[in-house]
Request: fold
Amino acid sequence: MKVELEADKCVASGQCVVAAMQVFDQDDDGIAILLEERPAPGMLDDVREAVAVCPAAAIRLIEQ
Reply:
């Protein structure tokens, strides 16, 4: 699994952090930061939730 974040699309809602706080954080402006590009398989459901709730569709999950 690989996670991609297009930070320029981020609208700083913070929903990704709520869904997967081990994978995402926010900078001082609220823009999402990707902490784990290749999170552990046990985090898959959380990352899927983050992708689903992102209002800007700025997160992409590549399942390999």
